[in-house]
Amino acid sequence: MRVTGNTDPATNKWAPTRRFLRIKAEVSAWRGFPTGRLHERVPRRDCKAGNRRRFALVIRAAHRRTRETCGPERLQQDIAAHDGMEIGVHRIKRIRKQLGIRCKQKRKFKAITNSKHSLPVAENLMGQKFKAAAPCQVWVTDIIAILPTGE
User: Fold this and answer.
1) Are 92 and 72 in contact (CB under 8 A)?
2) Among 57, 61, 65, 56, which residue's Cα sits nearest to residue 94?
3) Domain of 8?
4) DSSP 8-class letter at 66
5) In this structure, are 88 and 49 located in the same domain?
6) In a 10 Å sphere around its CB, with 0-12 CB exposed, 13-18 middle and 19+ buried, how is residue 76 labelled?
7) How many Cβ atoms from other residues are within 10 Å of residue 38's Cβ?
8) Residues 52 and 95 in one domain
9) 131 in any annotated domain
10) Bridge partner residues of 3 (DSSP)
11) What is the per-residue pLDDT across 29-83, written as a single tens digit (0 to 9) for each?
């Protein structure tokens, strides 16, 4: 707050009134501050244990919905968009830590085919012509590679 106005009692027309009412200084509200909200108190509903449990459920659902890949900042955006709730990033971090929730780390791509070898490569006998004139003339198979991620 800021003390404003003329404080000299000889030139200030409100000096006698202030002296009578025992007002030490006048204080002005900030410019542009909504005067209706000066004394409005916002209730702290989020301190209740029920809301903490609800936040935990919402965070866990958002974590599953994002396939366990998003951090707290992106979880916050997802929760705001999907559930319409505003939860702070630090609160999300704290609740995730309490629940033991961690996002999956992206792994570096690892090539499993060794193309740099000196062994002979089998000939392409089909020449990319996969249609056979009669049954049992051409047999094909597929090479299945097992990924190191276990998928």
Assistant:
1) yes
2) 56
3) 2-33
4) T
5) yes
6) buried
7) 8
8) yes
9) no
10) 27
11) 555 555 555 555 555 555 566 788 899 999 999 999 999 999 999 999 999 999 9
